[in-house]
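Forum > Structural Biology > Help requests

Title: Can anyone predict the 3D structure of Amidohydrolase-related domain-containing protein?

Hi all, first post here. I have the sequence for Amidohydrolase-related domain-containing protein but no way to get a structure on my laptop. I'd be grateful if someone could post the structure tokens.
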Amino acid sequence: MPFPTIDSHIHLYPESELSSLAWHTPSHPLTGRHSVAEFQTATSSPPELDGFILVEADRKNDDSKDWTAPLQEIAWARRLLAGTPDADDGFKPADAKQCLAVVPWAPVPLGAEKLAEYLAKAEEAAGSPEVWGRVKGFRYLLQDKPSGTALGDGFIEGLKLLGKRGYVFDLGVDQHRRGRAQLEEAVEMIDRAHDGVAEEEKVVFILNHLCKPDLTVISQTDPSFIAWRTAMFTLSKCRRTYMKLSGCFSELPDSLKARPAADIFSAILPWLAVVLAAFGPSRIMFASDWPVCSVGVGDDAWQKWHKVVEMVCDLAGLSEEDQRMLWSGTAKAAYNLNEFVAVF
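Reply #1:
Sure, ran it for you. Structure tokens for Amidohydrolase-related domain-containing protein below:
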């Protein structure tokens, strides 16, 4: 039976702000508007879908010099949550209730003082306490940053400030393209960010996309798989860490992306089994990574991934309580989602 569902990781942006996206080119497969209207089409708006968590879409930034585009993204989220769309925004006032939380970008490496300065500007861009209250955490992608970025003193200071203020940190690393070193740095980063911090002020880490394992390998004896598996169990032992069950389509070989959900499930089962064993359903949350998940997969990508996750639940024999956690309960707990109503 369908369980109440929260998609804990999607990206939205209007066509008028494409130039602010760091990755955008006119020929990019994700060019054009990707907003609530398009998301509703992709999901077919099933009644059990309670809403989504809006995660920053990698707007252009220069850390300490230029925060214009990330603040513009917060202003767009403000319009969504307030139900006051501009002509190109791609949502209706009634859609505000679907956005359960926002996770913007933040210049974490700059340290506590500059991060606090940014947070003040971000709160100003949010425009009201009600909208700002929907900001539950921040993300700073590490997957494309120089080695050692996460271990800098400023980065650790920034993480401690986020924890002190009650925000989570969405952690994006890439084992597929950057190797085991990024996973090892992530473990050390979490340890250092929690060191000497009171339990209630330790920042919560939400790991994105299984940490992007290399799903092109075909043997569980491959060094890449072994390194990733070891890191998953190590990370799962870290306090206050959660995992998003998402992002797998991007790591698949192209030949597999167009295959039925059952074929994809069979191919990636070893990785799914490791994550489930390491974290358990109370620390795993459903997420789609829409619209990124559609690249090379097609318009049915969201529904295909949903089927894969259903198969995970069935094969693992998860109880109803465990399935409720995976589909929505874990996201509620990790992001501290206390209410599911529009803010206006």
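Residues 340-344 have pLDDT under 50 and may be disordered. The first strand starts at residue 5 and ends at 10.
Shout if anything looks off.
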